[in-house]
Amino acid sequence: MKTVDIRYAGRTVALPDMCEYAKFYRKLAGNCWEANTFTTLARNLDSDTVLIDIGAWIGVTPMWSAQIARKVVAVDPDPKCAAILNALAPAAGNVTVIEGALANRGKVAIHAVDCFGSSETSILDIGNGAEASARGFGIDDIMRHAAGAPVFVKIDIEGYEYEIADELAKLKHYPLRGLQMAVHPQLYEKSLRGGWLWRRLRTAWATWRLGRRLGGFIPGPSLHKFDSLAAYILGGILFRGKPKGADFVFERNPAPTFEDKS
Question: How many CB atoms lie within 10 A of CB 253?
């Protein structure tokens, strides 16, 4: 696969040279895409730490992180994205690709917006384009690839985080360095049935529960533009025309010793 070198967040990374990503690459090179994500990754990754990147897309975060981390485990169910990740991984040398989805069952249906390869493929039935089946992997299956190292987990699964809160709670069994989880209340609300008010209230409550799921285990969540989880629920979901996505960041330092659960 032909690649193009893109410099962003202080590092040069080879990404797929495909015309459909050209506009995004200009945004990426201008540091106009998720700058806080790279700040969080840089703060938590080092040569001893494994990054588990669930929802790895076309390699933007895993291939960048591979230059810092001991190892990167890139997980994605989108067939086009998985093919791209497999093509990029050998050059990095420390990236393992899992072709599948974080899920609580062995097989799931995935739905694309328009076509595969975008960043919007989800297990939630909200797409308007291609569909496919993919293997499902539980948290324990994925975490085994850390092989005893300290771990930072990044999760961006386009709304499905709401459907697998119990699976995410299993992270409590692992002494993580931290977790960054993208939440997509606008997508979750879209997947619900019922009147507007009912769907909005359900979305707000589900977001609160998701944010508190790891409470008492690891500090957080912190949010970039909101002072607290409660402020986000009010200002980012309940009293907005459309719910606003956010990143929940849970962190603790120094990193604890990882106990292998395999």
Answer: 10
| Amino acid occupying residue 114 | D
Q: 125 near 150, Cβ under 8 Å?
A: no
In this structure, are residues 121 and 130 in contact, taking their beta carbons and an 8 Å threshold?
A: no
pLDDT for position 253: 67
CB 133 within 8 A of CB 112: no
Q: Which letter does DSSP use for residue 129 in this model?
A: S
CA distances from 199 to 57, 98, 111, 164, 205 (A): 29, 34, 21, 18, 10
CB atoms within 10 A of CB 178: 24
Whole-number Å distance between alpha carbons of 181 and 250 = 8
pLDDT for residue 213: 85
The pTM (predicted TM-score) of the whole model is 0.93
Using 50, 70 and 90 to split pLDDT, how confident is the model at 6?
very high
- What length does the chain have? 262
pLDDT digits (tens, 9 = 90+) for 222-232: 998 899 999 99
Please, where are the H alpha helices in the chain?
A: 22-29, 35-44, 60-65, 79-92, 139-143, 165-169, 185-191, 196-212, 229-232
DSSP string, 177-200: SEEEEEE-HHHHHHH--S-HHHHH
